[in-house]
Amino acid sequence: MNTSTNTKKASGLGVICYGLGDLASQFIWTFVGSYLTIFYTDIVGFAPIVVSAIMLIARVWDAVNDPMMGAIAENTRSKFGRFRPYIAFGCPFLAVFAVMTFINMGNGTLGVIFSAVVYIIAGMLYTLVNIPYSSLAAVMTEDPKQRNLIGVSRSVGMNVGMIIVNSCSAGLALHFSGTGAEVATGHGYMMTAIIYSIIAIPLFLIVFFTSKEVIMPEQEARKLNPGETLSGMVKNKYLMTIFIVSTIQMVAFMGRISITTYYVIYCLGAFSLIALIMTIPSIGGIIGSLVVAPLANKFGKKKILALTLLGQGVGLFIVYFAPFTNMTQIMIGHWVYGIFNCGFPICLAMVADCVDYWEDKTGIRQDGSYYATYGLSTKLGNAIGSAVGVLIISGFGYVAGNMEQTAGALAGINLTVNLIPAILLVVAAILLLVLWDKTDKDFDDIRAEVKERNAK
Question: What is the DSSP string of 339-368?
């Protein structure tokens, strides 16, 4: 704690290790998000409409489950805090069900039911762990600059995890698929999931042991009922702005990830290129993450977040208009996209601003439900992007497992992976600039008012 200002802060170790939680999340959820769609269509044999239905049903349930988990977490009282216990006790179950999503029970009715149930439970367990993990960012420190650093730590963890997952997954899956395999088999995908899950558990536990909740709510004596929780979310203009912008961004980001494997395999013509194409944006994201916090502190979070969204859009426009044989232009576009793919820590810091704003307005602090709302946007984006994306490429004539796709199918894959996400990112930037009408100085003043009132 900084005794000269009485500002409660996180330890340096806590800030650094916080990013390991997102590193662990990438090993589990990014792998699932990147490869489960193609596993369903090309390995299990589900029709695209079945895949879309599974994804969308899971996310409809998340619309109920995520805010519920946020409310449960923020009303929890334990010797470990409100959020940390769920990270420690939930991560082993999440790891097990992440592996189970790659079990092939066939494409009949039993297989569909099994896959849907396992995927929904895996999503619920991801919520159980990730919403409390995200909520820690707002209660580990009162210092807005340190909150930015915590966001950067998470962004670095995310991008390092994506580099590892994107660079190693295809090779690992091929290795476990057997000698001479040109594309991954179901066994290859499952073995890769097992390895990643084993790695993820201790990373989550390190976060549990190194983090500390230093900000506690003032309404200790009374727990919020569901109506109050929901009201505190939908009536907060700034939270809803972040929810809308983040959902659109995640439709572009996560939806693109789930279909990128199709782009590499069929448009570029080589399963082996998956590691290169999917790793470059993550490396660029780490580079961007190193400068995003200082830029946000100097120019304001809203402006820099909008800039990152527009920059990503430009990168994807470059890729979209590149011929499939022009690897130089494709690489340049992915580098531009990746370097500007560094706005996630700013989103997290802005959610913390929303928490402070609502506490100042009502006296109620809703860390858990607010980060649950942000987490829901992530999973909605993932589901919508994956479900709609696979339907779009199917509509353009994609045939699962056929290495000789039609020109129309290739055009549909390119449109889905590059053009549509580019347009969505530009739309998200415009909405952010229009709807978010407070400056960082306004939120600094809000935090000061909350702290002064709570000190009385």
Answer: HT---HHHHHHHHHHHHHHHHHHHS---HH
Is the distance from CB of 101 to CB of 36 less than 8 angstroms?
Answer: yes
Are 279 and 166 spatial neighbours (Cβ–Cβ below 8 Å)?
A: yes
Q: Which is nearest to 233 in space by CA: 21, 61, 64?
A: 64
Query: Residues 214, 9: contact at Cβ < 8 Å?
Result: yes
- Residue 42 identity (one-letter amino acid): D
With tokens 């506490």, the residue in question is: 359
Asked whether 246 and 134 are in contact (CB, 8 A), the reply is: no
Single pTM value for the model: 0.72
In this structure, what are the phi and psi dihedrals at residue 2, rounded to the nearest 5 degrees?
-85, 105
3-state secondary structure of 47: coil
Helix ranges, 176-300 (H): 186-210, 226-234, 237-262, 274-299
Distance between CA atoms of residues 374 and 351, nearest Å: 8
For residue 268, the 8-state DSSP code is S
Residue 163: how many CB atoms within 10 A of its CB?
A: 20
| pLDDT beneath 50: ranges in the chain | 1-4, 219-221
232 in Cβ contact with 364 (< 8 Å): yes
Type of residue numbered 184: A
397-400: long-range contacts, CB 8 A cutoff, minimum separation 24: 398/48, 398/262, 398/266, 400/41, 400/42, 400/45
| Tens digits of residue pLDDT in 224-268 | 566 667 777 788 999 999 999 999 998 898 778 878 888 998 999
